[in-house]
Prior knowledge:
8-stranded parallel barrel, 2 domains, 15% strand, MJ0144_FMN, two-stranded antiparallel ribbon, elongated, TIM Barrel, alpha/beta
Amino acid sequence: MSDCLFDLHAGYVRFRNPIALAPMAGIVDSAFANQYAGYAGLVVLGAFNLDKGSMEVASDLTSRGRKEFISDEPLELIKREIRAVNSGSAVAVNVRSTTLEPLIEAAKLVKEEGAILELNAHCKQPEMLKAGMGEALLRDLPRLSAWIKAIKETGVVLSVKVRANIVNDVKLARLIDKAGADIIHVDAMLEGFGADLDAISNYRDATRLFIIGNNSVTDFAAAKDMFSRGADMVSVARGTMENPNLIKELVEGATSYQESIGWYNAPKHVCSEGDFRALAFCCLPVKHCPVHGKYKKLGYTAEEFARTKMEFARGTMLEYGEDTCFGSLVWCCKITKPCWIRDGVLNTIGLSDAEYMKLKEKLAKYVLDHARIPVNESH
C-alpha cells in the first residue's frame, strides 16, 4: 500500500509507513499482530518479562486478573514470536527486567533477528514500581542512562517506552538521546484529558531521535494532530480491539495525506506553537513575532538564520517567487495555509504542492543541521 512512499528508518530497521501497533502485556503477541496489524509499519510485541524478579511481579499481577506473558524460556519465546509475525511489518519487542544482564541477552537475540528492542520504562503498576521496573526507571535517571548505554553496546536498535508528565520531559528526552537510544516511544497521557500534544512537541524540540507518539489515537484526525507536533510515527493499542480496521484506516489516511502534501508530519507554524522544524515556514525575521525566540534557541542571530535559509534555497525551486511577500518561496508558509500569491508562483514554475513541501522538509533539516546549538542542548 505504501512501501515506497515513506522514508522512515531507525538504524538497520526500515518502516513502510508511520503507523504502529503498541504493546499490551499479555495481549499483543504475534497472533494478535497478524490479526489486527497486517498493514502496520511496526508492531511492538509484549511486554515480555525476562528475569526472576519480573516473572514474580507478573505472576502476582496475573493472580489479580491482569494478563501477562510468562515463560520459563523468555528468549526462546521472543524468538518464536518475532519469527511468527507474517505481515511484513518491522518488529519490536517490549521487555521488562529488574536486572541488566537479561536485557543484554535479549538485545543480542533481537539484533540477530533484525528487530528492535524496546526497554519498558512505562508500566506503572505498584508491584512493578516497587521492583524498580517500568516507570520507576524514569525516577532513577542514572540507572536508565547506564542501562541504555550498556544495551546499545550490542548494536541493537533501541527504543525506550516512556510515560510523559512523570518527570521533566525535556530533561528525559535529552538523557535518552545522549545515552545512545534510537527511538523514544512516548505515551503522552494527560490524566483525564487524553493525549497531551504539547508533550509530543516538547520531546520533538528536545531531540532529533525517532519519536513514536501514543495515546488516544482513534482516527486519522487524532494521528495528524500528533504528527503535526513532531511524531514520526503514531502507535495504537486498545483502539484496535474496539475497531479491528483502525490500523488499516490510519495507514490509508497517512498514505493519502503524504501523497497529497508530501510531508505527512509537517509541523504547525511557529506562531501556532510549532516545533523547530517549523522555521522552514517562517517569514524573513523582520517583524516582532515568535520566530525570534525560536531561532535564538538554536544559537542563530537573525542574520545567520536568514542567510542559512537563503543558502539552502540557492539552486533549488525555492529561489523563485519574486512576487511573494519576501521575494522567495523559501519564506513562504505551509501548503495547507491558503495563499494565492504562493500558489500562483508554484503553478507558474510547475512545482506541485507535494514537491514544495518536500523541499520545505529538507530545508527544516538543513536549518537544524547548521544550528550553532544542537537541538538536544537548546534552551
